[in-house]
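fyi for ur records
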Amino acid sequence: MLTTDSVVDRRILLQAEALRSIGWTVKVIAPRKDTSRTFQKTPLIVRLPDDIRRFGSGANYLQLVFQAIAFLKSSSIGLLKGLLWKYCVNQPRYFKKLFIPKILKEKADVFVAHDLSTLESAALAAQAHGAKLIYDSHELYCEQELSSRVKRLWEKIEAAYIKQCSFVITINQSIAEELQRRYDLTSVKVILNAEVSDATLTYEKYFHSRYGLAFNEKIVLYQGTIDESRNIRVLIDAFRLLCNSNVVLIFLGAGKHVPRLRRLVMEYGINSKIYFHDAVPQEQLLSLTKSADVGIIPYLPTCLNNYYCTPNKLFEYIATGVPIIASDLPELRRFVNGYQIGEVCEMVCPKTVAVTLDSFFSDPKAYEYFKSNVREVSKLLSWDVEKIKLLSIYRNI
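which gave:
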């Protein structure tokens, strides 16, 4: 399995463990560790050497620049790195040169490309070894907020290799249908980003104890990357407008904009209503999520990929029996409204979000209805179910 994640996505690790459970030998080949997050440890993961000599002169210079500025923390340096990556690097070529020296030495029956960034490398390795190829598209990769140049490069790669795959897998029905239409594919399999159902999790008021909150205060939880591109600002602005004084917002995660957002909360004078909690290891995440009263997903349809999103947090909320308030987007609506486990609303206007939150907690019977439903749905939308679908794919290969 190939991935460009330095912190390997739980989707990949769950798939790897599922295959190991029926006798497969699995390696997850990933870039070097992100030193800012050291809590991921598993013998499954094989790290690529960080050798800049393999990239050629142009990428070599950029890699040297990246390394030279890696210790600087200012926002301007982060912006510079982003611009260099977006406009100066041939991203498909970069990832190909990153993976190829390692994976051509790996003799495998199946090479799995997790996301488009590894598809070319996995395809070339599969060809070299006479192996099968699987492409697991974690998103509609070409429809992210990319520059037109980078988008064209990735579209060419996807079109060139997707029909070589024995199976194409993705995360939800909308993306599956889009890939089928775009590349004239017969079938794209859907494996949801579901979580492992854990009946042993107990409800504890962790956040109440951590922040000294009254036990009658309701916890609205946002977990994941804390970045303004995730529409975090609208949540902060909404909490200035809430009528219900017993509602608290917790941000659980990490991100480059956290210091700025902390200052904003202080300036608004709502620091007793909004708290920032550091990221935690995946194995601790669900026990903290369980302490929330509602999980929130505020994403905006800034691109087609976001429009069709079903982020990990959707299934983490479901796994822990936490009702959901989400942006009114097709796939989020499919789950939240379809299973009646919460509410969707337009997340552009802070006032709309505030009204929705006030309404959500104003009717205890409606809240308990959502709570009861999500407990039942957690049995249906779980990794236990998705694992069976995944193993069927590999048995049929």
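The longest strand covers residues 132-137. thats all i got for now
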